[in-house]
Structure formats: structure tokens, C-alpha cells
Amino acid sequence: MVDQRLSIPRYWRRMPQYYRLEGVQCVKCGRVYFPPRAVCECGSREFKPYPLPSTGKLINFTVLYSVPVEFEKMKPLIIGVVDLGGIKVVGQIVDCMDPEKLSPGIDVEVVFRMVKMDGTYGLINYGYKFRPINTC
Q1: For 78-122, how does the pLDDT look when each residue is reduced to its tens digit (9 = 90+)?
Q2: In a 10 Å sphere around its CB, with 0-12 CB exposed, 13-18 middle and 19+ buried, how is residue 68 labelled?
Q3: Distance (Å, rounded) from C-alpha 127 to C-alpha 20?
Q4: What is the pTM of this model?
Q5: Taking the CB of residue 43, how many other CB atoms lie within 10 A of it?
């Protein structure tokens, strides 16, 4: 039986979002979307690539101490909402050994890291995460 959660072609199609944090901008009205979508709120279907900024502000975060098995080595897992120039993105906060030092409003930068490894097929998934700047 094939694992429906893992799809190598689907992962490769999403590489611009996972690897470059690339959204899309509507050619008609200029609205930006991340992740990309097929139809803009204005009704247009014409988009161009839009690279999101590499730095932003932490809006809020939570610390997870109970995590799925594949994330055990990353405990505690810190998940945050980051404002990247008006686009809000959810991602893992890394390189912070003391979550008590985090607070909403701190500056963060986008970093490229391993997200997880699929032990069954050996596929290593990489993507964006966020690292505090001058904190932790």
C-alpha cells in the first residue's frame, strides 16, 4: 500500500514555496498570496512570482513539549506566526535554546533547514524555518 501522506511529485511542485519562500502576486490588483493560489479575490488567474522578504517580525508563538515521533529530536518545538512584509507565515522557530527569551515583536530571519526525514523511503524534506536575530 502506498503512503498517501508522502508524494515526491507534490513536494517537488511546492519547492518554490518550501525552498525560496516564494509567493505569487496578482498581475491585475497586486495582491500577494502565500501559499500561492489559483484565483485572486479580484477574479484574476494571472500571477507572477513574488519572493517574500528574508526578515520579519514574530507576531506570536507557542511551545510544544508533546510532539509526534518524527519531531522528538527537536523538542521543545517552537511554532510561530511571522509577519513578512504584510504576509503572515507559520513556521518553526529554531536556534533558540530558551523559549523564555522569545517575545512577540522580535526580529527573525528566514533560514533553510531540514524539516523531516521519511525513514520508509529515505526522502529528506527541506524547507524554511525562522531564526531570532540578536535573541536567544
Answers
A1: 999 999 999 999 999 999 888 899 999 999 999 988 877 776 767
A2: exposed
A3: 8
A4: 0.79
A5: 9
